[in-house]
Amino acid sequence: MTTVQSPPAPPTAIRPQVVARTGLYAVLAANAAAVTVFFVQAGFASNALVVLGRLAGLYGALLMAFQLLLVARLPWLDRRIGMDRLTSWHRWLGFGLLWTLLGHVVFIVLGYAQSSSMDPLNELLDLAETVEGVLRAVVALGLIVVVGAASARWARRRMAYETWHFVHLYTYVAVVLAFTHQVAVGTTFTASSAATAYWWTLWGVALGAVFLGRLVLPLWCNLRHRLRVSAVVPESDNVVSVYITGRDLDRLPARAGQFFLWRFLTRDRWWQANPFSLSAAPDGRTLRLTAKAAGDGTAALRHLKPGTRVFAEGPYGAFTTLHRTRPDALLIAGGVGITPIRALLEELHGHAVLIYRVATDRDAVLHDELRELAHAKGAELYLVTGPAVPDRLAPRELARLVPDVADRDVYVCGPPGMTSAVLGSLRELGVPKPQIHFERFSLAG
Q: Could you list the residue ranges that cross the membrane (predicted)?
């Protein structure tokens, strides 16, 4: 199998993740400054509460547009930051958006109630009935509250992914309603031609990014490559590998460590997309994913027929050699988190150490293949088995297996609990943060 080996970046080079993250911060700060300038130019209301409410609403609109950018799945951002981190930022920004918009409503209602001597509830009802766009804004806020509640950890754990995703789609309805409210009654929106042009451009870029990243690019990629299942190979009783072929796969910008959202176009699975990492480095001819049966969807992979058409979104993820900083590497995998690690081992050059953490030998997916690959590349392979307690990857154990761990890039992928424990061990061992690369298995497995 032929793979492209990418040398690590020079130690003095600015990391791609830093460039992308700094760029996002700069864009947000510049837009916040622009919003403030346009707000000041529009003039202030006589009521301080109304002033605070309008400013909160403008910042809420900015955060809403920025949220769309974070989940647009634009390749440049995703390959440098990673979907898991972008999604995490989107989540926390969403809570900021919720409180900002609540502040907008509370301050506006209290301000107008103070001027009219009405109680806040009746003032809100009066505004909804008499002012164009206010009712739409109230509905938008209600939808955002529902989505925010569904995103809370206690609710997310009790909700099927499909249900959570369906609820989240209402965010786009809220965006449209909020924008029409801003167009209808936003004093800053109509204060000057420059302000109007700014807000139209901001919303156009945000919605355009979503349209491009979530619809146009996936459709174009699948029309270009015409992906199909070429073979289904059982690896064990509950693990299966699916091989995918297509046209011009050498032009597909996929790298070892990345994942796709796979949709197998059968009668009972065409509507369901699942994230699976590539379990072999792309060679320009075939893509391979390896999955463990964890439900009806993954169990059905074993029954796919060769020739089945595939719709894939991606590649996604920043868990690649693009972010290397050192010539040697340590790869740590847990469970089926071995799939992107196995692909990375194939692509990496320099000396590599692979530690594979499983409960029993029988749980070691692709172990024979890993052993052959490690031998061919001159890498060290350690299979660590046993119960989670005591921790077999504690700092002392890691230092014993890999004495020079602080001088290596470290890639970690596995269940959330294992990943968090390993990251803690690496910090105790003094591994610099830029050398630690990890991906949450719950997202990309």
A: 24-45, 51-71, 92-113, 133-155, 167-185, 197-217
